[in-house]
Amino acid sequence: MLSPGFVQIAHELNISVNTLAQSTAWLILTIGLSLFIANPLAKVWGRRPVFIIAIMIMFAGSVWGAFAKDYDSFLASRIISGFGMAPYEILVQCTIGDLYFVHQRATRIAAWNLCLLCGIAGGALISGYIIQVSPKFQVNSPCADRAGYWMEMDLRHLCHPLRHLRHSRPPLRPRNGIQPALNP
Question: How far is Cα 85 from Cα 38, in angstroms, rounded to an integer?
């Protein structure tokens, strides 16, 4: 969502666009390395707490990035956001695997991947349009370079209570009523 505003952000931080683009590489590296932390934490604490903690980390990283005044602070906010994004890269597929039978999983995983990739591509497209057209986000406006962060906070994080509270936890009871033995 930030790539359309890289020129404005680089100008404000007094760095080159290439240097700013490295923050995306650090973000992706952090997501990849955080997967090795998120999966074991989900096995210990459960997926729901890990999802809730992840969304709080992403929110904190978004707020931090929106108010960052120098490149080091901006880069740190991107790295922190990467820790929050990691559980959504791996644990959603695990959750789909737990909720659906094998013959039903492919459609759900394909739909999740489609939504994820369309969100990545479409978010940058929408963010670029908002930066270009809206007078509030023009180059001379103090909000221009952070339009992606503000849009991300509005769209993703304001829906947080609905996302986690409207779905009840699925019961893990066998259908035939027989409880499995704990130590076979």
Answer: 10
DSSP state of 101: -
Q: Does the domain at residues 3-160 carry the CATH identifier 1.20.1250.20?
A: yes
- Domain locations in the chain as residue ranges: 3-160
Nearest Cα to Cα of residue 43 among 87, 99, 74:
87
State the amino acid at position 106 in one-letter form: A
CA dist 16 and 21 (Å) reads 9
pTM of the complete model: 0.72
**28-85 pLDDT tens trace:** 999 999 999 998 999 899 888 898 899 889 888 888 887 888 999 999 999 999 999 9
User: What is the rounded distance in angstroms from the CA atom of residue 76 to the CA atom of residue 164?
Assistant: 27
**Sign of dihedral through CA atoms 116, 122, 128, 130?**
negative
